[in-house]
Specification:
It is a single chain. By secondary structure, the protein is an alpha/beta fold. The protein is built from seven helices and 13 strands. The chain has a single domain, classed as P-loop containing nucleotide triphosphate hydrolases (Rossmann fold, 3-Layer(aba) Sandwich). The chain is 28% helix and 27% strand. The strands form three sheets. A nine-stranded mixed β-sheet has the order 6-5-7-8-4-9-10-12-13, with helices on both faces. Strands 1-11 form a two-stranded antiparallel sheet. Helix 5 runs parallel beside helix 7. Keywords: ATP-binding, Nucleotide-binding.
């Protein structure tokens, strides 16, 4: 077991992901920033959308989902396969989806929350702050960090932006999940820029591994400050009801 030094005695935020909270002492530490990292196709978007949706459905906690890779209407349609009616909770003011794609693509958007200026990081952060406050959000998900950082020229700029992002998130008082790419988790590189994990209180790695000539999904809690957690890999699946983790299942 990896026991971290900082004791965390505060509130836990339930993930809404069956089996996962058993691995992290009941949920994410309140008002923390957690990195969800993995290669393409590992389920990062589903993981963070489930966190926002279940927060509204099961716990009555408002949440903001910032989509920088897919249009809001595409997210809604994809999540319907799990029986999740995002629009229902949007109408109730429990979920806000920020469309950060349409304006980049030059496509007109009818969304309530549209990120017009993705070039200026300060404007981006101010806008997210306003949306969070407008629904009194307790949860926030940003999918994904590389979509914020890809226009930046060098590592120094990216580091500055990510530190600023983390400071603003902590000021908002939300529990945030941020997604990033893990280009080579087996080679030890678990985030695209090698910086993201240092601004996060926790790091959850999602990956695919070949076993018996088929790909299996596994999850590893790499870091969760103030939390006792296993350093083992646990199987998970994307089922008809979303992400399900098997904490007592086969470990491979």
């Amino acid at each position: 077991m990896g026991i971290m030094s900082e004791p965390f005695s505060g509130k836990r935020i339930k993930s809404g992901i069956p089996g996962f909270d058993d691995l992290i002492e009941g949920g994410f530490p309140d008002q923390s920033t957690i990195l969800i990292t993995g290669s393409t196709g590992t389920g990062k978007t589903t993981f963070v959308a489930q966190y926002i949706y279940k927060g509204a459905e099961e716990y009555g906690e408002p949440g903001v989902l910032v989509s920088l890779e897919e249009r809001a209407k595409d997210i809604r349609r994809e999540m319907e396969q799990f029986g999740w009616d995002l629009e229902k909770y949007e109408k109730q003011g429990l979920i806000a989806i920020v469309d950060g794609v349409s304006s980049i693509s030059g496509i007109p958007s009818e969304e309530k929350f549209v990120l017009e200026d993705t070039l200026n990081v300060d404007n981006f952060l101010r806008y997210i702050y306003r949306v969070v406050k407008s629904i009194n959000a307790k949860r926030l998900a940003i999918d994904s960090i590389p979509s914020i950082a890809f226009r930046l020229q060098n590592e120094g700029e990216i580091r500055k932006v990510l530190l600023k992002l983390n400071t603003i998130l902590l000021e908002m008082g939300v529990t945030s999940l941020l997604t990033t790419e893990a280009p080579d988790p087996k080679g030890g590189k678990i985030s695209k820029y090698g910086i993201e994990e240092y601004i996060s209180r926790g790091v959850v790695l999602l990956d695919l591994q070949e076993k018996n000539i088929e790909l299996k999904r596994y999850l590893l809690v790499r870091k969760m400050r103030g939390t006792k957690h296993s350093m083992r890999k646990y199987p998970f699946e994307i089922t008809s009801r979303g992400v399900v983790v098997y904490p007592s299942g086969e470990i491979y």
